[in-house]
Amino acid sequence: MSALPTGTVTFFFSDIEGSTRLIQQLGERYPDVLLAHHSVLREALAANGGHELRTEGDSFFIVFSSALQACAGAAAVQTALHAHQWPEGGAVRVRIGVHTGEATLVGNEYLGLEVHRAARVASAGHGGQVLVSETTRGLVDHALPAGLALKDLGEHRLKDLARPERLYQLLIPGLRADFPALKTLEATPNNLPMQLTSFIGRDDQVREARQLLARSRLLTLTGPGGTGKTRLSLEIGANVLDQFPDGVYFVPLSAISDPELVPSAIAQALAISTTGRHRPIDALLDHLREKQTLLILDNFEQVLDAAPVARQLLEGSVGLRVLVSSRTVLRVSGEQEFPVPPLALPDLKALPGLAALSQFEAVRLFIERAVAVKPDFEATNENAPAIAGICERVDGLPLAIELAAARVKLFSPPALLSRLEKSLNALGSGTRDAPARQHTLRGAILWSYDMLDDAGRRLLARCSVFARGGSLDQLEPVCGPPEDIGGDVVEALDQLADQSLLRRLPDFDEPRFLMLQTIRDFAKERLEESGDAHRIRDRHVEAFLALAQKGEPHLFGPARREWLDRLEIDHDNFRAALDWCLESGNARQAMRLAGAFWRFWQMRGHIHEGRTRMANILAMPKSQDFPQDRALALEAAGGLAYWQADMDIAQGFYDECLALTRHVGDKRAIANAIYNAGFPMTVSRKTIPRAKLLYQEALTLFRELGDDGRIARTLWGIGNANFFDKDYAAAKPALEEAQALSRRLDDRFNLAWSTHTLGLVAFNTNDIATAKKSFLEALQLFLEAQDVSGITLQLDNLSSIARKEGDPLRATRLAAAAVAQQTATGTGLGGLLSYQEGRTGREGLSEADAATAWAEGQSLSLDEAVAYAMDPKAVPRALAHG
Fold first, then answer.
1. Neighbours of 726 (CB within 10 A)
2. What share of the chain is helix, strand, coil (3-state, %, to 5)?
3. DSSP H helices in 160-247
4. What is the DSSP string of 47-78?
5. Which long-range contacts (CB under 8 A, 24 or more apart) does 698-701 make?
6. Neighbours of 510 (CB within 10 A)
7. How large is the C-alpha radius of gyration of the chain?
8. Which of 807 and 483 is assigned the larger pLDDT?
9. Cα(295)–Cα(305) distance, rounded to whole angstroms?
10. Residues near 525 by Cβ (< 8 Å), separated by ≥ 6?
């Protein structure tokens, strides 16, 4: 794609009229028809200077630097489509809209109201028709190519736009010139309010809601305050105007608190007289009985007792549909709930560049609203991560994003993010014409909170101790007992979810509830005010200590992946629990929790974080008061230091742990501490004879205990010691025995590591085929559990194999990918071994080629690097030129 035009540009939008009908008629032939449609459009538009920005299904978004070229391109498209030989019953009729204006170019995305105006112009037309805005007409009227002309269609109100637009039809020689009335707001009776800002994204939600509304006569959009329910309901209403010839009517209920007044409010919106002795509900039933009408009832949550009114109206008019926006479901028969999700957010752990970030709805909304309040605001690659962070901090809630964008007049995105991380009060107030409940995000949440009874408020406050949600078996003991919350905890949680203060998470094996961070911040304040925070947070710690202890023995066998995934789900809860232990000075619980949880940090690549937390825990004033628990924490600290290749520090922790355990531990704990103490000695190669003595002492104790699992691990330790001592003949039988015993026990952890070390022995004895087989087997075992530390080491191993096989390019890429993962996860062992063996990872290439290959390898994701390591033919797309 050549450089996209900037400044004043012309936008072209198109889509196929009746595409759903075509799909049904053509069946398996439709993909070929759609492909032909795409080819015709691309050829005609490219020939006239069009830049293709986006294609979604049958719709095209094209930009031109010239309004004349856009009109010529539109004419060429319609002419070519008319001349194409379509299959019987498969004629493609495309509607096109052309509009000229200025828009902000961010990456490969144009943002601004003019883009939306162009899309709305297109949506007003019919298949075969080209509509042109007044702005475009002014640029081309006297310069159109011969044969083309413009027909004035008058002013029209377009959905989601504040001011009417004068529209023109492009007349094309030989093509149809007469079309039905345009699909604008005047075509159907309605009272939809004008919107002063553009509607961003939500195409999927609009599409899904339209489908649900076609099947269900009562559709309720639910979500917490600030989710954008009202705006979405108006967008849906504008999109279905042509399906309701008797009108689409918006009924605002935010100013009403008496359910008895709802019929009167509906009658007022429909301009129905309710004077005299005729009850409002009767007048409505008489008026709607034979009509095809859509009612949009907004903010129903405060008049829930009026839910039977909606049911009564639906029963009295078969052509009526009701679209409700509410923080709470109505709970009437026939109701279809549609939870409105927050706007789409990028993953902060893997942020793409600005061009890709601007495709996310939340980021686009922030940028558009920021430009609206500060015209010189620019989104850049430098501030894009902060913009993404802001959107994530406010949960992708449209209201909160708009409030945040308004603050760019005072703060840069990084400065605003820093303030938001401390307090959501940094969002400030909204526009003066917004409803009072939406002047601040706090006001929007308070609106829902005030509608709860005391028990509901108490439960909401207690739920705030959970970070990123919790399952029922966690929430019940932490937030209960039932007498505190006025009844069954499950039922009470379900009611909070019905009121959009919690979100149900269906994609889990057990019921799980999530509180948005914005609501959680509010609820945490309520918990502090209740005086109950200390007790509830202690319960939260106990719940996650129990989970960590339950999962710990499963992290080595066939259920490794299942349990690591389970702990991953609650990683934020473990962080919150440890934070509270530190804050409250509960050293014992902190050491017990970290001691049970540290393997997760090691296996899933959170070693940097684990080491920082262990240092803070061991420095707690009372950490010396509980020797058995401190021994667990010292083992964890030693293990994490070992995995970062910080051997001297690891040895110090392990030695202290051994001394403490000899004093307070039993035989199994002592044997385990002895076993641990040998590893730093082994890898650092400083005192390998001493390490061998420790392993033998541990092996004797484990044999006395009959602990086959620990026997297998100690044999692996002995094999390691002999490998690092370069006594490969002694290493091999110990490792083979460890491998065989681990297979019998189905200890996948020790099986993977003994296989890994056997591969190292084979490699160093020039048995490259056996080494490669061992490394690939170890890699598969680590992949089963998504053990990031193990996977990273195998990338390094397979890099060495590639170099031995005469492929230095692939070897260098894999070495670079391994180093990138070592840096990201804190797994330093691979780097240490490379250093000890004098490897740079760049051998066999010129300096320039090595630099290129290294950069390519560092750019690979973990999944890409693994695929490349396992199969030389699986070259990632980014490296296909290599």
1. 12
2. 60, 10, 30
3. 203-215, 229-239
4. TTT-EEEEEETTEEEEEES-HHHHHHHHHHHH
5. 698/671, 698/672, 698/674, 701/667, 701/668, 701/670, 701/671, 701/674
6. 9
7. 33
8. 807
9. 18
10. none
Please state the rounded mean pLDDT for residues 17-32. 88
**Residue 451, pLDDT score:** 82
Q: How many CA atoms lie within 13 A of 580 on its CB side?
A: 22
Task: Say how far apart CA 757 and CA 763 lie, in whole Å.
Answer: 10
Please name the amino acid found at residue 281: I
The span from the CA of 292 to the CA of 245, in Å, is 6
pLDDT(448) > 90? no
Q: In angstroms, rounded to a whole number, what is the distance separating the alpha carbons of residues 785 and 72?
A: 58
**500, exposed or middle or buried, with CB in 10 Å at 0-12, 13-18, 19+?**
buried
Q: Report the percent of the chain where pLDDT is more than 90.
A: 63
Residue 432 banded pLDDT, cuts 50, 70, 90:
very low
At 176 the three-state DSSP class reads coil
pLDDT at 875: 72
Cβ atoms of residues 509 and 558 within 8 Å: no
Q: What is the band of 1 on the pLDDT scale with cuts at 50, 70, 90?
A: very low
Q: pLDDT value at position 307?
A: 94
| Bridging pattern class, strands 218-222 and 335-339 | parallel
Helix (H, G, I), strand (E, B) or coil at 407: helix
Output the DSSP codes for 850-873: HHHHHHHHHT--HHHHHHHHH-TT
Q: Name the amino acid, one letter, at 633.
A: A
Joined together, the tokens standing for residue 606 give 């959170």
Nearest to 632 by CA among 717, 709, 712, 552: 552
How far apart CA 767 and CA 207 sit, in angstroms, is 60
Distance separating alpha carbons of residues 51 and 72, to the nearest angstrom = 14
Sequence-distant (6+) residues with CB within 8 A of 579 are none
Of 217, 236, 219, which Cα lies nearest the Cα of 228?
A: 236
Bridge partners for 293 per DSSP: 320
In this structure, the dihedral spanned by the alpha carbons of residues 330, 336, 339 and 343, taken in order and rounded to 10 degrees, is -130
Residue tagged 């099986």 (tokens)? 751
| 438 has a pLDDT exceeding 60 | no
Do 782 and 745 contact (CB within 8 A), yes or no?
no
Overall size of the chain counted in residues:
882
Q: Smallest Cα–Cα separation from 816: which of 777, 769, 869?
A: 869
Residue with tokens 């945490």: 524
The dihedral formed by the CA atoms of 203, 206, 212 and 217, expressed in degrees to the nearest 10: -170
Assess whether pLDDT exceeds 80 at residue 424: no
Render pLDDT for 823-842 as a digit per residue (tens, 0 to 9).
Answer: 888 887 766 556 556 667 78
DSSP letter assigned to residue 729:
H
- In the three-class reduction of DSSP (H, G, I as helix; E, B as strand; rest coil), residue 48 is classed as coil
Adjacent-strand bridge partners of 94: 16
Kind plus residue range of the DSSP H or E element containing 298:
strand 293-298
* Strand order, beta sheet including 503-505: 470-471, 512-514, 503-505
Say which amino acid occupies 137.
Answer: R
This prediction's pTM: 0.75
